Amino acid sequence: MTVALKELNGGTLEVLDERLAELRTALEGQLIGKDDAGYDEARSLWNGMIDRHPGLIVRATDRRDIQLVVNFAQRNSILLSIKGGGHQIAGHAVADGALLLDLSQMKGVHVDADAATATVEPGCLLSDVDKATQAHGLAVPLGINSTTGISGLTLGGGFGWITGKHGLTIDNLLSAEVVCADGEIRTASASQNPDLFWAISGGGGNFGVVCSFKFKLHPIGPEVLSGLIVHPLSDARGLLQKYRDLCARAPDELTVWAVMRQAPPLPFIPPAWHGKEVLIFAACYAGDMEQGMQSMQELRALGEPIADVIAPHPYEGWQQAFDPLLTPGARNYWKSNDFLALHDEVIDATLSAVAELPDPQTEIFIAHLGGAMTRVDPSATPFPQRKRHFVMNIHTRWSDPAQDQSCIAWARELFEQTAPHAAGTVYVNFLPTDDEGRVSEAYGSNIEKLRGIKEKYDPQNLFRLNHNIVPKADVELMSA
Question: Which N-terminal stretch is annotated as signal sequence (predicted)?
């Protein structure tokens, strides 16, 4: 009896039962085959469009398990995929016939409140981190959907409600323990293996498997001034023009996102508006409550809102506010761009698209990034876009596979209409599978340095199931 696993060269390796038994005995975690209980659960991802069947799954429980799997894959030239939270839109965590290293059982968080740091295992979701840090009145900047995995978020950059005040997630990364392609565990920090530390601070999962992250924490909460302001879509053009002006003057503490979608049946939205197209301003002030009330006055005075629920909310709860609209299992396709300015042409094209949403679950959001993240040099991390800017994500979401073509076409059309006004950069975590050609846009002038570091730590490109950075030597070979 054998198990067939894909090789790095595209071939197939038949792994004998005896070798699998040796691996199973050595592991603390679980080895799962296609016929074993838990296989379908372990291969499932947030994006329901991804339905792939790995040849074998290892559910790691500690860093030694990670080492064993990396060494096994390296020695046998096996195609290896890594799953943290399984939330990536492109679904690189699972590949047909590959060996899947599942980190989801590694959920430890240790908070040193005196030092204001947190050491986090790679299988944690953002909710796990927030729960542990908020117990001490502390937080690290994370994303806005708490079911996202900490590994993918961090390795791609990471931004959310307190980025203006405290920077990107990677700006708060102090160190990491990384299992590299040679099976060695290396500490990556500003003083130890600084090139590796630089590369993982936004360069994705190209350089190894992180088995722990250490973050700097900041005082916040337990409550923050936050909430939603809902407007009719008919008023959106003028409101978005005022929104862009407001963002240019906003203090570091104030973050406001614009969301356009059909109004969900939330209790504070009048039933007559449920299912109708609306503009929602989602806002958070990461600071003193009274100052926050003053800072939000201009935003709250705009137009004639349908609903305004800006109020003190638990920070941990606000971090989960969008979770009900982003549950796992639906079909998702994203197209994204960065914009240095929110031009009228972009606003007009976006509003025309919102008037023809392909599904009630679909939304478009515009996030504003500024403040602390702009005071970091573009070469200090692989994340190159350090100017104050807007991130638009066209988040197409639906349930019926019969809608695949129409939903994807709708997203691509709006993307093409707005692309002439874009900044030429893109957030790597928002790239779908058909945007692999845009990886260089995600890193800008930092791409060459990343390729050199990839050549040093992973010359055979073992860690290739990601938005891949090809080793420098391979790039030179392809261009010769």
Answer: none
Rounded Cα gap, residues 214 and 217, in angstroms: 10
- Terminal CA-CA length for the chain: 44
- Comparing 66-70, 216-220, 473-477, the range with the smallest average pLDDT is 473-477
What's the pLDDT band for 24 if we cut at 50, 70, 90? very high
Averaged pLDDT for residues 334-345: 98
Domains and CATH numbers, the chain: 2-102 (3.30.43.10), 109-219 (3.30.465.10), 223-438 (3.40.462.20)
Asked if 5 and 55 count as a contact pair (C-beta separation under 8 A), the reply is yes
Pick from 391, 344, 349, 387: nearest CA to 366: 391
Cβ 133 vs Cβ 217: under 8 Å: yes
The model's confidence at residue 473, banded by pLDDT at 50, 70 and 90, is confident
CA dist 185 and 180 (Å) reads 6
* Pair 454, 470: CB distance under 8 Å: yes
Specify whether the CB–CB gap between 161 and 367 falls below 8 A.
no
Rg of the chain over all Cα atoms, to the nearest angstrom: 22
- pLDDT, residue 477, reads 67
Mean pLDDT computed over 394-401: 98
CB-count exposure of residue 268 (10 Å: 0-12, 13-18, 19+) = exposed
3-state secondary structure at position 89: coil
Distances (CA, A) of 227 to 121, 232, 255, 268: 30, 17, 11, 11
Residues shown for the chain? 480
